[in-house]
Specification:
Layout: H1 2-14, H2 19-30, E1 35-36, H3 37-44, H4 48-60, E2 64-69, E3 83-88, H5 102-119, H6 123-146, H7 152-165, E4 170-172, E5 182-184, H8 190-195, H9 197-213, E6 220-224, E7 233-237
Antiparallel strand pairs: 1-3, 2-3, 4-5, 5-7, 6-7
Helix pairs in contact: 2-3, 2-4, 3-4, 5-6, 6-7, 6-9
């Protein structure tokens, strides 16, 4: 899934490398309402057929969306066919290498702050609860991928796939995790972790706790163990969680 999403986002952003296509995209985005092919062509001073080709390419890449409307306001017989109009698509495209998930961090922090204010709880406690809930959602995804009663290897593979989709870049364990442990080679919230280490590392730990608690036993335990070049949390084999 991560490969498909990455490929789609790269293709969408690469689409804007073509100068005419980029100019048409920026023109459409700058308008207050959806625009026709003729309006877009005139707006960037290109032939209508050329505008049509690039606009439809932008639609195919998810950057623009199409709607149909009669521009004259007339209805009924003789009103003519609705015009094909273009507007900016709702799909958001972003490519970060390594993968980052700052929007997710913002959502979790906003949820934690809102819950803390409404219930009079410490923000850190509410944020941890929101992060554990995110972890349980990841567990549900892994369980859906494996179906009925998966074997432990199948469940572990699904859990790794889900974590990879979240940008954690799982790796087989080394000497510090035990043979069955996992290293999380990437932190999806790296820039935040640099400035707000305790907050983000605690959030990562809670996500892993929520995920592992939501799955049948995998023999793993999340350990807070910051190190250069990887996530602050590692998944140690149970009984081998010392730092």
């Amino acid at each position: 899934m991560i490969q498909a999403r990455f490929d789609a986002d790269v293709a969408g952003l690469a689409s804007l490398a073509e100068p005419t296509r980029r100019a048409l995209y920026l023109y459409v985005c700058a308008q207050d309402s959806a625009v026709s092919r003729d309006e877009a062509a005139a707006g960037v001073d290109v032939p209508r057929h050329q505008a049509k080709f690039h606009l439809d390419k932008l639609v195919g890449d998810g950057l623009l969306e199409v709607e149909y409307a009669r521009r004259t306001g007339r209805q009924g017989p003789g009103a003519g066919r609705p015009a094909k109009l273009y507007r900016r698509g709702e799909r958001e495209l972003a490519v970060t290498l390594p993968e980052r998930r700052y929007e997710l961090a913002g959502q979790l922090m906003a949820s934690g702050i809102a819950e803390a204010r409404s219930e009079g709880r410490p923000v850190a406690e509410a944020l941890a609860d929101a992060a554990r809930e995110q972890g349980r959602a990841l567990a549900d995804t892994a369980l859906r991928q494996t179906g009925g009663s998966p074997s432990q290897p199948a469940l572990l593979a699904a859990a790794r796939e889900v974590l990879d989709d979240e940008g954690y870049e799982t790796r087989p364990g080394g000497a510090d995790t035990g043979p069955a442990g996992l290293i999380l080679a990437n932190c999806p919230f790296h820039a935040l972790a640099v400035k707000h280490t305790a907050v983000v590392c605690g959030m990562n730990l809670a996500i892993m706790e929520g995920m592992l608690n939501g799955l049948p036993p995998l023999g793993l335990t999340p350990v807070l163990d910051p190190a250069d070049g990887r996530c602050c949390v590692r998944l140690a084999a149970e009984g081998n969680g010392s730092t």
